[in-house]
């Protein structure tokens, strides 16, 4: 195949080896389709993109793994054709929400308020953990809803309609917003139990408010570190509380004897 194939250009790696860049132009917008080691694959990607944008009305559900186009790029092109907007991330717009298509089998639904953020951030998946990278750090997508890193679905938060791919704000209810804290009801009275995991779970105490339980967790972390336990616990940040009020509460918190007498030896 010759170098003048439409939509394909020759490029070179630092070591001098050849690869091929595929691109397409639509409504005067130049869109990169990806890099390919084989010129024929680059040409196929260009042809598939041209078909989506100008010919056969392929939709997202028509994607086939045999296509040269990556699935994420395929979604972006279908959205461009149907909605007139190109996103670098695999977003498809609906009237009141959008779907971020991670794979052909997995699409996440978000409010339009999140459109600017996710058009600039790629969602990645590792096991069942969904995260984005921002300024060199990883953040779970649930953190945007006040769900802490090690939260458990069904215990610390729930999807109101039962659909765990629906990340619209009204569909996520945070039950326990702090590390090491969970709500309990005993004899009709709501209490908050604080616990911390060392080699097993240690109950720190039962408290009248969620804030007290969260501070009890922080106090236990400090105590364990003083005892020489080298474990990277994430402490709770208490919003809307002055440093003076925090310190007063911290000093008045009583922890269980089991954690006070814990030995690292």
Let me know the largest β-sheet. Answer: 3 strands, antiparallel
Number of strands: 14
Beta fraction: 25-35%
Mean of the pLDDT scores?
Answer: 92
Percentage of residues in helical conformation: 10-25%
How many structural domains?
A: 2
Low-confidence stretches: none
Instruction: Give the end-to-end Cα distance, rounded to a whole number of Å.
Output: 70 Å
The chain-level structural class is alpha+beta
Q: Order of helices and strands, N to C?
A: EEEHHEEEHEEEEEEEEHHH
Order of strands side by side in the largest beta sheet?
A: 1-2-3
Gyration radius, rounded: 26 Å
Inertia-based shape: elongated
Number of helices: 6
Describe the structure.
This protein is α+β, with helices and mostly antiparallel strands and about 260 residues long. The chain has two domains: about 10-140, no CATH class; about 180-260, no CATH class. The chain has six helices and 14 strands. The strands form five sheets. It has a three-stranded antiparallel sheet with strand order 1-2-3, covered by helices on one side. The chain has a three-stranded antiparallel sheet with strand order 4-5-6. Strands 7-8-9 form a three-stranded antiparallel sheet, with no helix packed on it. Helix 1 packs parallel to helix 2 (about 70-85). The longest helix has 17 residues, at about 210-225. The model has no long low-confidence stretch (mean pLDDT about 90).
